[in-house]
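We were asked to recover a plausible sequence for a given structure. The inputs and outputs are reproduced exactly as logged, with field labels preserved.

PROBLEM: sequence recovery
POSITIONS: 613
GIVEN STRUCTURE:
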């Protein structure tokens, strides 16, 4: 039994349990009512069942008709434009084959959208990105809605896709669920070299041909992008929450070990089915402790700021209420153990080679900063994740990890962390509340007091940069970038210009109610500001020349304007109607109208028990 839990870990967990008591109870009652001790399809009528198995082979029809064994759903985000998801083309046949060899069946239940933020960065389509998460959640629910399945294997990797699949699966929390990743691509040119060329392009020092060559040398094959952005933060979360097989998150795509892990994930799901003595539904596997572990993992690895939105939304889907204050409290006691781009030059392949998740989990357990006593797909207890997979004569085996980092420049020891605090922090002041990614910030960039320059799009800032108008200390303020305004796109296009100015010695920062890329962090960026401008937030009243102080160490974001002056200022009205149409944006109008704040998860519809609480 774990006895050394950190007092802050215990305190935060207890607060979450207490505030979630009512909604969590409602959710668990619903899942208990949905549970059947027989196969799900046994409750269908003959016509219903005939439709569901019409395209199956004679053997599969026989198995489905017998009502004796499980039928597993495959839900996939496959498409062959998105490198992280292209490898999924091979997964369904592997899964079906191994399931059939164990006298059960599997069916491809449905696909979910999988847009690539890398393709849509700085494009109008990026305004669909955040809302694609809720669309994916609904698509997952549609895939599982046929009551044909006794478990589900989720095939997804990238930014909004894993959170969306998780939220959708939670609507079917009476079923066991496992996530199977595709794995990263091999390393290309270094991420620091790629970032340098981007800045040189922004300054006109290199042409588009040189930029494209650099980008293509970085993103060069099938598999997940190798920097530690939102996609790879997703993989860390799924492993530390016990929804991946141990050690499976960062095994390269299209390798024999990757295929063996995919087959093993399918078998593990069978072992957790309602017909098994080890039945473990998703609703029971995931609890408040699981989410606290996820937040600690995010802090310790310097993960994506996008998860200050997604984790809250994911938790709400199972009746658990998490706030930014929980993130902040855990960040203050969680050491930063990892250096991966953007807060270092290493990528996830270097991280995996240095010992990966087993080392991180081991160090955090030693510090009492993780709940070991959680349910996982590997069994009871997080100690199952202190082992690593390998192949021997084609057979998947596990051995105990040494739990020692082989590269201290990538994974540090608990005694000598890269920072004594985690990689994210909450900022608060008279402008509102926001989050900031601190893991990649140098000490000199953690505090800035400078006049505001207000821009209503990232294109406007880039144009000002090109005209040479930004050669000074300033805080770039970008209002009307929140979920209710334009869907909260990532403002990745700001980084080359702002990074170049910072490298010239200017003190610069960003304040916005929008998002930044999961790969951002070099420039101090107070993001996800609440309330957003469209909700009457103070950010909509800021004018050029107003003095703003951003203080990471003290968690402050202050506008130096007298309160009475602010009260009498009229919020700057901006025409954003052009953002409501084109590239499908008109189809998402209902989401912009119903979405809640970033601090509440930017959810566009009611989640577990919310309508009764």
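RECOVERED SEQUENCE:
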């Amino acid at each position: 039994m774990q006895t050394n839990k950190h007092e802050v870990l215990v305190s935060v967990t207890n607060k979450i349990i207490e505030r979630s008591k009512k909604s969590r109870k409602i959710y668990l009652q619903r899942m208990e009512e949905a549970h059947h001790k027989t196969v799900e399809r046994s409750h269908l009528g003959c016509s219903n069942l005939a439709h569901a198995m019409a395209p199956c082979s004679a053997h599969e029809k026989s198995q489905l008709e017998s009502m004796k064994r499980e039928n597993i759903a495959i839900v996939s985000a496959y498409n062959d434009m998105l490198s992280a998801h292209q490898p999924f083309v091979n997964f369904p046949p592997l899964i079906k084959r191994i399931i059939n060899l164990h006298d059960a069946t599997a069916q491809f239940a449905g696909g979910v959208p999988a847009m690539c933020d890398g393709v849509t960065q700085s494009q109008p389509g990026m305004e669909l990105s955040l809302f694609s998460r809720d669309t994916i959640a609904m698509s997952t629910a549609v895939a599982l809605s046929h009551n044909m399945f006794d478990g589900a294997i989720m095939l997804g990797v990238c930014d909004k896709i894993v959170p969306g699949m998780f939220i959708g699966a939670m609507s079917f929390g009476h079923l066991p669920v496992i996530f199977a990743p595709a794995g990263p691509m091999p390393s290309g040119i270094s991420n620091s070299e790629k970032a340098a060329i981007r800045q040189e392009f922004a300054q006109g020092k290199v042409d588009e041909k040189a930029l494209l060559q650099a980008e293509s040398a970085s993103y060069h094959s099938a598999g997940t992008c190798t920097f530690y952005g939102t996609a790879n933060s997703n993989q860390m979360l799924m492993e530390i929450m016990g929804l991946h097989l141990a050690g499976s998150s960062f095994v390269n795509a299209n390798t024999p070990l990757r295929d063996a892990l995919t087959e093993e994930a399918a078998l593990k799901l069978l072992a957790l089915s309602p017909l098994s003595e080890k039945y473990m539904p998703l609703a029971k596997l995931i609890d408040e402790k699981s989410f606290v572990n996820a937040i600690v993992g995010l802090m310790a690895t310097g993960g994506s700021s996008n998860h200050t939105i997604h984790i809250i939304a994911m938790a709400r889907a199972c009746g658990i209420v998490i706030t930014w204050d929980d993130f902040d409290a855990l960040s203050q006691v969680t050491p930063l153990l990892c250096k991966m781009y953007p807060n270092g030059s290493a990528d996830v392949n270097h991280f995996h080679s240095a010992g990966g998740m087993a080392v991180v989990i081991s160090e955090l357990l030693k510090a009492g900063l993780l709940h070991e006593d959680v349910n996982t797909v590997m069994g009871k207890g997080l100690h199952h994740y202190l082992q690593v997979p390998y192949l021997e004569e084609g057979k998947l085996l596990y051995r105990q990890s040494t739990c020692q980092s082989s590269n201290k420049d990538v994974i540090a020891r608990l005694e000598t962390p890269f920072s004594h605090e985690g990689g994210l922090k909450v900022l608060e002041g008279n402008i509102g509340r926001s989050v900031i990614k601190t893991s990649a910030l140098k000490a000199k960039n953690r505090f800035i007091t400078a006049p505001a320059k207000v821009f209503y799009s990232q294109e406007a800032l880039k144009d000002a940069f090109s005209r040479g108008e930004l050669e000074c200390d300033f805080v770039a303020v970008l209002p009307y970038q929140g979920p209710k305004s334009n869907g909260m796109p990532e403002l990745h296009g700001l980084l080359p210009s702002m990074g170049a100015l910072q490298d010239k010695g200017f003190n610069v920062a960003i304040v916005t109610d929008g998002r930044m890329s999961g790969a951002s962090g070099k420039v101090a960026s107070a993001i996800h500001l609440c309330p957003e401008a469209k909700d009457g937030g103070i950010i909509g009243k800021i004018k050029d020349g107003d003095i703003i102080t951003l203080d990471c160490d003290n968690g402050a974001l202050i506008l130096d304007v007298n309160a009475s002056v602010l009260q009498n200022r009229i919020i700057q009205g901006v025409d954003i109607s052009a953002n409501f149409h084109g590239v499908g944006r008109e189809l998402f109008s209902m989401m912009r109208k119903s979405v809640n704040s970033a601090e509440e998860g930017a959810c566009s519809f009611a989640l577990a028990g919310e309508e009764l609480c």
